[in-house]
Write the structure tokens for this entry.
Amino acid sequence: MFRNSVKTYYASRSLEVQRLKHTSKLDAIREKLKEGPGLVDFVSEDRPKNWDDYEGKLKRERGDAERLRLPPWLKTSIPTGAKFSALREQLRGLKLSTVCEEARCPNIGECWSGGKHGTSTATIMLMGDTCTRGCLFCSVKTSRAPPPLDPDEPKNTAHAIHQWGLGYIVLTSVDRDDLPDGGSAHIAETVNEIKKCNKDILVECLVPDFGGSRDSVSRVARSPLDVFAHNVETVERLTPNVRDRRAAYRQTMKVLETAKEINPDLVTKSSIMLGLGETDEEVEQTLKDLRAAGVDCVTLGQYMQPTKRHLRVAEYVTPAKFAEWEARGAELGFMYTASGPLVRSSYRAGEFFIASLLRDRRANTQ
């Protein structure tokens, strides 16, 4: 009995030592991140410094008929430049779609033109530009019967990414409920093609829920990707009004939990939009639910109405409030929390952190 107690003691001490080492490595990466790009690197320099002194109306009251005016911290410049045009032409030539264009991302000018750091990036949207779902926040085209998949898309995607010479790439996709596997085999094939061209590139996949199919989630999770992302989008109460009826809050949590269960080495990631009418308590619960599902990284950004046909913005959340959520994410134990008005699922400062984490892991296993 004494011997068993000694074994138990040393086993617990070993686990504690491993936990401390892991924490130390994360702290070192966070220090490295401070030297790398942050939100201020990816927003226009001419924005006002006194964001929290803005006196315009930020919240729509019940019965308000008019839309809220865009606050100054969300105004972005019109995308231009040689790099922007070259990247757009290359994508057109290869018949590739991007979520940057389809979802009308406000950061497209910064990302495509390369910004201060001179590296152009784009989030490739697989399986075409037409979705089978009709979420009320999203501007991507919808149809019950989208065009068939392009069999050349996996290789074309890998070819384009190889030409760009990137170290980290994000793939996303439309929902394809018309396909038996939801398109999971197509996504996995694309990841394989990318890794064939460059085994060292880090690949993040922002995937659909595949109708909750464990087999489809497994197919992607077992591919050679590095980051498995699936967005919860909003709090549980608002989900039926914001997302397509087939996109359930609990189903999203199960997809994230399943991916981590199938491949524990994956970094898992999700994203929340603020400004749809959620309460602080609901955002807090959503963050806790994501942590319970094993999610490692989370991003929080401002919802922006893409067209008059879509949901109106209920509130423009201040940069100070986003900073509070970033601090809360760290307290809850997320490896990384990116929180800011213009933060999106594909956020370059977040990718910088995740890339540092993954390369550190690789170095320790070699």
In short: The first strand starts at residue 97 and ends at 98. Strands lie at 97-98, 124-126, 130-131, 141-142, 168-173, 202-206, 227-229, 267-274, 297-302, 336-339. Residues 33-48, 99-103, 112-120 have pLDDT under 50 and may be disordered.
